[in-house]
Amino acid sequence: MNNLLYIHGFNSSPKSLKAELTKSYIKEQQLSVNFYCPQVASSPKAAIQQLEEIVDSEPSANWCFVGSSLGGYFASYLAEKYSGKAVLVNPAVRPFELLTDYIGEQTNPYTDEVYQVKPSHMDDLADLYQQNIATQNYMVMVQTADEVLDYRQAVDKYHNTQLIVQEGGDHSFINYSAMLPSVMRFLALQ
């Protein structure tokens, strides 16, 4: 059985547009795929534990990952741990540097959860960094006008993967729905 774990980004949720579009595409195309998209825990350790428990719950399944932003960082970790394929959308490459600006109280705009981003979370994120990756297992999609992340970090890290660089766009990845057939083909789900 094919399982797809979609991992949303920082301060996001399963109700994000890309998550909803992915779920709808699988249903509309009648793909034989179990779609998972949990509300990811707000601390890195809890998030990875939660995501690993989902994958470990069906060890015989073929797991694929789609991750957006911070979810892309988590997807990269999981793809290496479980030797799965992953599609990363405007992925965070070094979130342990980026998220230092967010230390303190945060409110998730989707869920209204109020939580703390702690300095220790930066160490937890750094512990998940994957220096060496199985480049054939990745498709990485970035847009050059991403206002949140420097797309060049992803281009540098994932230059030997199936890399798609689109001019313009933004952090949400404009026209993501048009990429879904390519995403599903790369993951061998369509």
From TrEMBL:
It holds the Pfam family UPF0227. Transmembrane segments: none annotated. SUPFAM superfamilies: alpha/beta-Hydrolases. Signal peptide: none annotated. It comes from the Bacteria. InterPro entries: AB_hydrolase_fold, UPF0227/Esterase_YqiA. This is Esterase. It comes from Thalassotalea marina.
